[in-house]
Design goal:
Rossmann fold; OB fold (Dihydrolipoamide Acetyltransferase, E2P); five-stranded parallel β-sheet; 15 strands; elongated
Length: 236
């Protein structure tokens, strides 16, 4: 269950958001707030996983409020002003709803948030035991710690292995297929014919790419269903 709050200075918009939220079984509305200061008070005492956030509000506006949070939860911006979209996505919001929006568009944004929430809260013990391995780099064997892998990029007969512990990727002669066979299937997801991403390193899911920290890994149309299967594993 995703615990959420809605912040908007317009009463009718708050009521619309409240009604929409209550129709989705995976959302739990904690409070509606008419300004950022009210939201601060709620977040001091309540766990908040998702914020529906207006931008143009008196006093502290939505983007200023979001930038002030040290560890912001997921955010869906709800605004009548299209010009703030780029600034919003630079703050890694989940989605951007332009008023007036339909319930269908609202649902699409919430499904994105739900996908990200499930990904971020995947239980570690659901992943198989991970075996580290060595690769050949300029006639030297270099150990690759699988837990450090952020993503892998294929370049014809070579691959680049991007690690959280290294400033530069490790370049080795190997095919993507051979690398895929070395990695636990549930821990990595193919997002593109030339990219493999570590599931637990993904921080944001967008339409055509996923984010790992500040790095963007492309998602091609062919592999979107593949990514969706990882984000929505079958129930047992």
């Amino acid at each position: 269950m995703i615990r959420c709050i809605a912040i908007d200075d317009e009463r009718l918009v708050r009521e619309l958001l409240e009604d929409n939220i209550r129709q989705l079984p995976f959302l739990q509305l904690i409070r509606t707030c008419k300004n950022a200061l009210e939201a601060y008070e709620v977040m001091q005492t309540e766990q908040v996983d998702l914020i529906f956030l207006d931008i143009q509000m008196p006093g502290l506006n939505g983007l200023q409020f979001l930038a002030s949070l040290q560890k912001p939860p997921m955010v869906i911006l709800v605004t009548a002003y299209e010009q703030y979209a780029l600034q919003g996505f630079n703050l890694q919001v989940v989605d951007y709803l332009l008023k007036p929006f339909s319930f269908e568009r609202f649902l699409k944004a919430c499904n994105r948030a739900n996908e990200l929430f499930r990904l971020q809260n995947q239980q570690p013990d659901s992943l198989p035991e991970i075996q580290d391995f060595f690769v050949n780099v300029e006639y030297t064997l270099v150990k690759i710690v699988v837990a450090d892998i952020e993503y892998i990029e294929g370049l014809k007969d070579y691959i680049k292995i991007y690690l959280s512990t290294a400033a530069k990727p490790v370049l080795t002669r190997m095919t993507m297929k051979a690398m895929e066979e070395k990695l636990p299937a549930d821990a990595f997801v193919r997002t593109h014919k030339s990219f493999l991403a570590a599931v637990r390193k993904i921080t944001t899911v967008k339409r055509d790419f996923v984010c790992i920290g500040d790095k963007e890994v492309p998602v091609s149309e062919f592999y979107k269903e593949n990514l969706s299967r990882v984000l929505h594993p079958p129930k047992t």
